[in-house]
Amino acid sequence: MDLNAPAIDIRDLNKFYGSFQALRGISLTVRKGERVVVCGPSGSGKSTMIRCINQLEEHDSGDIRVFGTLLDDSLGSIDEIRREVGMVFQHFNLFPHMTVLENCTLAPMLVRKTPRAEAERVALKYLEKVRILDQAAKYPGQLSGGQQQRVAIARALCMQPEILLFDEPTSALDPEMIAEVLDVMVALANEGMTMICVTHEMGFARKVADRVIFMDKGEIVEEAPPAAFFGKPQNERTKLFLSQVLGH
Amino acid sequence: MTAALHTPRNVVWKRLRRDYFGTLPSALMTFASFAVLLALGGWVLNWAVLDATFSATANQSDCAAKGGACWSVIAVRWRVILFGIYPYAEQWRPALACMVVAAVIILSCLPRMWSFRRLALTWVLGTGVFYGLMRGGILGLTLVNEQQWGGLPLTLFVFVATGVIGMPLAIVLALLRRSELPVIARVTGWIIDTIRSLPLLSILFTAAIVLPFRLPGFLIGEKLYRVIFGAAVFFAAYQAEIIRGGLQGIQRGQEEAAKALGLTYWNRMSRVVLPQAFRLALPATINQFVVAFMETSLIVVVGFIELLAAGNTAYKTGEWKFAYVEVYAFVAAIYFIFVFGLSRYGAFLEARMNAGHRKD
After folding, report:
1. Which of A212, B198, B209, B275 has the largest count of CB atoms under 10 Å?
2. Domain ABC transmembrane type-1: where (chain B) (predicted)?
């Protein structure tokens, strides 16, 4: 791990499902502290791309480097990268048989070998940060969707990762719960967390993104700072997508 | 349960009337079923208690005079039923051994004992004490070979050993069957399907009688342990499929979340995936244990006098030949105690595991 290297450096990434090519020559560099929003129509490969970064999906060719560490087939490099890259999922994926607090302390205790008392102290700190401290003893099934997603963010933060990946974190939420999750994400962004967010929340992109990336059919079609991206989109496909997302 | 307790009496009465006496046919059905139950219950009570003979000194004609059950056979022969052909003077040892096994089972059922170290310690200690008591040859206890073990301790030992060896084997088989490497997954599938397509009897026969001709001498070991190994492999093949069913009920996101947090394969399985799989597989697992308990009686065919066979020997000698119903009722009661306990424990586990998933 070299914290001076780019946080994420992707070169010419290709990914196939059978004969279907999900990613076509993706190249992307994310600096430490940068907030990148990835958008695009469904099936455009945006989730697949960020899932390649922590190897929930194996890529077929191309290089992925996280803080200079090359992801190769060795288990060592995958473990090293997963320790530094947290992920928040569309469907929360909290462990239903553990309390909120146990969800948050599991990985630090097993992976970082943090003593229980210290792990719980850190967990309570982050649960307070996502404003859900009073639910620490409950089970995920007893919480609302928005609360569960905030716990999932706290769980990822407890590993004290350098980078957070968000895979459509608000897509499975009822409308009235989206704001509470976005608030937490905005707060994280303002603290300088390196973030890659796959999301359709264009308001969030405008507010916090350093760069917006538009993907379609497995390619990066356009990338620009939010002002330029929303103000003067260059590509026809981008314009079409934006008119569909913002048009009503 | 609690809701029913708080329901006012007149509401309960109203519900009873509506559900059981609502229409003429349903009222007739209720009366008819009630009459049958009453008659059956009365008959069993008369036979088993009121007209029964309990004295250990009574004989066949004394029992016949009273007309009911002749429990004298149990009073006289209970040690044969419980301990088989174990030397008479030493039978305090299997009695104590049974209590040790029961204690170990009860201890491992308590949630506060569920850590690897505590369970392992309990089981190693328990098995050691059981084995020492039963076999002897140490601490001045006379040596009693496995061939002379019998009755309840043998049944319990075979059952517990089958579970203790079979369950970890089942977990390994289930995990191998869903391996990402197709060769391993397929070969494991074949192994499981092959074992499941063989009758347990043939496996026990093979283990007891055929294997010694094929194995090198140092691997043969005592017949009892070969038979237990066979039963455990059979148990594992079925239990592996039960666990696989549980694994299939878990959303893929669970393992992905554990991966994303950096957990190793064993931590993902032992902390995230298997606990949830076992929760889903619990009813079928309890069922499998109940079946395994019943199937211990099959080892009689390779010459072991387990509980049921010991019951057979208890009434087949001379004067008690007429009293087989009483002996079987007694043996059935022992099986019932264990299996009913197992089922209730399963229900307790289910309630406990569901507690966390309920919305409040």
Report:
1. A212
2. 152-343
